[in-house]
Fold these 2 entries.
Entry 1:
Amino acid sequence: MTVQRSLTAPLPADGIGPPRLLFRPSLNWSVNWLWAWAVPLALLAIWQLASTRGWVPDQVLPAPRTVLNTFSDLLGSGELWSHLNISLVRVFAGFSIGLLGGLILGVAMGLSPLLRDYVYPLFKAFSQVPTIGWLPFLMLLVGIDESLKYLLIAKATLVPVAVNTCQGIQGVPHRFVEVARVYAFSRWQLLTRVVLPAATAPIWNGVRYGLTHAWLALVVVELLASSEGIGFLIVYGRQLFQLDVVLAAVLAVGMVGWALDKALQRTEDWLLRWRKSGF
Amino acid sequence: MSANIHKNTLPPQLRGWVLPLALLAAWAWAANAGWSDSPLLVSPLAVWERAVLQVRTGELWAGLSASLWRNAWGFAIGASAGLVFGALLGGSRWFDRLLGPSFHTLKQISLFAWIPMLSMWFGLGDAAKIAFIALAAFFPVVLNTCEGLRGVPREFIEVARVHGFSTWQLLGRVVAPAAAPSIFTGLQLSLIYTWLATLGAEYLMASGKGIGNTLIDGREHLWMDLVLLGIIVVGLVGAVLNWTLATLEKRLLAWRDRTVARY
Amino acid sequence: MAHAATLSIKDLHKQYEVKGKPLSVMQDINLDIAPGDFISIVGSSGCGKSTLLRLLIGLEGDYQGDILLDGKRIVGTSLERGIVFQEHRLFPWLTVEKNIALSLLNAPLSPQEKAATVREHIELVGLKGFESAYPHQLSGGMSQRVAIARALVNRPDVLLLDEPFGALDAMTRAHLQQELHRIWRTEGITMILVTHDVEEAVYLGNRVVVMEPRPGRVRRIVPVTLPHPRDRASHGFATVREQVLREFAPQGAAELAEAPWKRELPSSPLSAWQFAV
């Protein structure tokens, strides 16, 4: 999640980043790491206690051991992996379609004011409806097979990618464009050597948003209209009142989401390695 | 750069209408010409008639107001909890140590994955839905509040200390305004996510009234006109929300647009 | 030694249309510049000196009159005319070396020749050792030197400089003025400098063109016949400087100050509020 920085804040004194307000995070990683487990372990202890003492019915809160067993069962039998696999394939397929569409649309609208005048209002109108709002409509149109998932995920990706790409291109400082004119760059050279590099940061921002929304859309559509996939696994567990299955699947969702965002962040760091943080 | 204006294209203000009107016309024509005899091909007129019917029977308002009410409650609870949690996370070293990593881990879980768990614990009624919406509101507010507090530059604190500000004065006159833009951003993001969560909650915990339920209803009965109406209403609410936020942001940005000498 | 060209400006007029009415920003500009000459242009804000430079570089067209380079009318931008802007305008995603090399993109040289001339020019501006640095790692003065190298690497016939040192501190400015002078002596390129610093104008130029605003016109051309390199503390220097400053007396020196630059706001990603999630 990007955060606005105040434009009136002065440059950081040591150039490393904004100085912390009340404390500098301790560099003693091992100590911090230990403390991070304090609360989770405490909660685990309470959980164990609650199930041993029978404070909560077993259906609502099964014992930690049961959950662990189910988890290893799911992992061992490969069931978790196969569901996860299906979900990942869907996400990547839908994301790729949406990414391509979003980039093309974004670049086109960013470069051509004429196209922007014609297309942008309709695009904006369509994007007022959140992805999830389109679900019943698409379900009526294409049923609940794979194309539903691809369409929804593609739509979820396309909007942020197109918006950020368009804005990124429009935001390329005019003074850079003038430099390209002074050195007699062709239109193609201008696009590839100046506009796209200058717009990389906002475009990549859009790509990251796009993947987050793609993953979000995937989970929703699998919760509602699927017979396999990680989202389905969650619903399945819920219907059988097996919290262990639900927890295992939710854990998987969290980890994949984290891994995807981390991968994109690493790529961004590499793409923008010329940039210093801050202003 | 050519200064010639093509005289045979429309003026900029009208260009945006071309595509939507063309689509509308194509849609109406396709419906009337009977392209397909699927019950899904409804005409724009049918959607309008359904809208009139829904308004007259009061159903539309009943659904919409139920959704908005849940949205408001969820936002209120989630955002206030988020402000407190975020302030603690940003301001207190111990709080950050103990709860920070757990929070950041939980944050990774895609929002809707929480619903089945919540429905197991809270049932399918309004309580569960509001709990989910509050959760959706919680995360962005925490993140941005925390960042906002942490981002207050040390230089500003030093100015306050040099002028002998008390802790309360420091917090109220320096920290709060400096962190305000970021906190406001968090609240804005939170509003967007809560509307999304409201819809999602109504789909996935499909009991009771709501605009999401209207959409589900339409799908189950294969009433495309109702579905389309629902989409339009959802879109309008989203548009109003986004427009409000854009206007608010412009006003906020106004005081930040300073003329700065370039060095 | 690069090839230097003769630049002739004849009866130059330029006007904009503001709310339907023509607004004349420049009129009756006549200037003949011999090859290898150094012209300084000074004037208060609004006298059109930057516009003049933009017309010369070809970033703006639509004027009445003639601008001739070696007898040929100029059309648009060309590698024969180089410019150094006030902001260095280096591309932040490229190193010093790549930034300078980029201006050779369309030059008819082999890759080895390009690499050689880039290296040469990095040395010329005194930045040897900084080839792999990124712009954010350089100081303002160093960045401007890279900009100068970038402008020179094409060996243009004319080098235009639009207040190149305006954004730098006084000591860096003095140092870079000396550097620019040295480069001019070495390369022999025709140079046209626009500045609001009268001392800089007298130090560097063989002629100081004083312009006045509304509409932009040449008020007076003050020849500077002092030998190079010039001594700022000498009596001759002070005399010429007084001559130029006297042209501004009615308006007062305050008019020479430039308005502070408006920082370009980064486009806010949250302006995408118009879009739902």
Entry 2:
Amino acid sequence: MNWPHKKRKNGAAGSNGHIIEMRGITKVYDTGKIKVQALRGIDLTVKRGEFVAVVGPSGSGKSTLLNLLGCLDTPTGGEYRLSGEAVAGLDRDHLADIRNRRVGFVFQNFNLLPQLTALENVEMPLLFGGVAKRERRRRALEQLEAVGLADRVEHKPTELSGGQMQRVAIARALAMEPDLLLADEPTGNLDTSSGSDILAVLNELSSQGRTLMVVTHDPALAKRAGRTVEICDGEIVEDKANGG
Amino acid sequence: MRFLDWRVVGHLFLRASSLQRKRAILTVAAIAWGTVAIVMLLSFGEGLKIQLMKGRHGMGENIAVWWPDETSKVWQGLPEGRPIRPRMDDIDYLRGRMTAASGVLGELTSWSSSLTYGTKTITGRVTGANWEYGEMRHHFAQEGGRFFNINDEREKRRVIFLGDELAKDIFGEVDPVGKTMFVNRVPYLVIGVLQPKLQMGTYKGPDESGSVIPITTFAAQFGRQRLTNIVFQAKTAEDMPLAREQFNQALAAKYRFDPTDEQVTGLWDTVEGARVMGNIMIGLQIFLGIIGALTLLIGGIGVANIMYAVVKEKTREIGVQMALGARGSWVTGPFVLQGLAYTLLGGALGLVIAMVMILLLGLVPVDGNAALEFLGKPTLSWQIALATAAVLGSIGILAGYFPARRAAAVDPAETLRYE
């Protein structure tokens, strides 16, 4: 795989080189009748270029953490700085802009837009980022080429295999050159061989110095990560570097 | 909507409409029907208005008609209850003092004179009037005839102008012009027959069933001087109040009554009548418009309903777009556009149908059918088109706006949760 190498935006990270800085993050879901404490004080720091696996049982708060990290949701309490920028109190449009420029999402069920071609799907974030049409096309093609789908650009998602769809999703997540790539069970819906394809892609991205956070149940994937964070009942119970 | 790409929006829109095709067609049909209703109702109202205006002009433009009456107020030591009965020669007096009037004339009327041609005699109405009556009161002659002129009046000629219905009654199929007939056994030359006209208001019976002779001739034959009516015409509609004031002052000065005595000065002011009629017509059109708009609103609710379904169906896609960095307005834009597109499509369709219907109704012959003639023909004006477009546009925007607001409220974190 041959990724387009861009000059990384070093100035974008916090002065200490941290992409993620979380202090005492809590999240409470208030459904009116009952309050659910999903996160109970998360302290987490991720440096540029780290590959972090987030593991833990179902309902432990992994996905909630990922949503907060990606600014899809806002914490109930605590302080969160993404690339040095405090996220608390920003309005919806501002959060949308941050998601667009700083974060790339990869989902378990791909979440491609079914009526658009692979190319149009990858162009989507560029469209929202205000990239001009010609440039949009060029960058989308570049990303699709990098994931090995140069011959599938005009295919609709329904005409692609699961592994191909996930690769389109990765190309889409990277189109805006985000600081952070967030993946929620990226191999969860794939067969073993497609899954290992995706693992290879993630490895490749990590070796290029991109910052990755992956929520996973897959031990093979967790092993590839340089660091494993285990969450249980809304708290980090273990945070260790993987040897080797 | 900084970066809204209309191609992508268009793509999404086309895709959505194909998903909901059956519903979309029904909804467009509902909007079209609503548009037909509003346009047809307003057009019928417009046709009726035009017809009423035409009918008003049948009497003449900016006309006022006065009848003699008794005073109801004590004035300068004179008691109430005195009859005020101006005479023929007061017309010249009034003409000299009513600068705001373009014409003043008197009428002497006999309600039942015997009118004879050959062996046929009927009882009919004969009016003696000044020669200006022809222009002022819209007594235009059919081809081959004329109204009487200043010389006829000056020389008291025995010439008669017949209403078209009256002419038919006396002469049947014979052309009356040039024939001699008898009014109370005195011979008259028929010089003209009234062109058929639409007349909405009358003060002594429709013009078509009466006859007119020079006022001087009338006075000589019937031996009467006291006027049955005074008719005057204001220079413009705006001059009417001043003309009325001058009329009251002049008459009051001569006959010594209170110029504010409404029992004497009361008259029929067709300008004011037209204003009242105009207001009634505006009210009628607003009423018809509201009925049409309500019909259209039901179609709009249909559009909104479809849009709600589309939003629900696309909740996950909306969530994905938001995760990729779409702002709320970029997500809602296509929905508003879509609602508007359905509505305008239905509106355009409805407008075409209504125009075809109006065109076809215009071909229906109405001559001889009094009801249809009175109703007039539905007429589409640019005001109606504009009003319809405005109603359609607002309904379309609302039909897209409310569902779009729901789309904007989608919580991406919630929708993207993997089940």
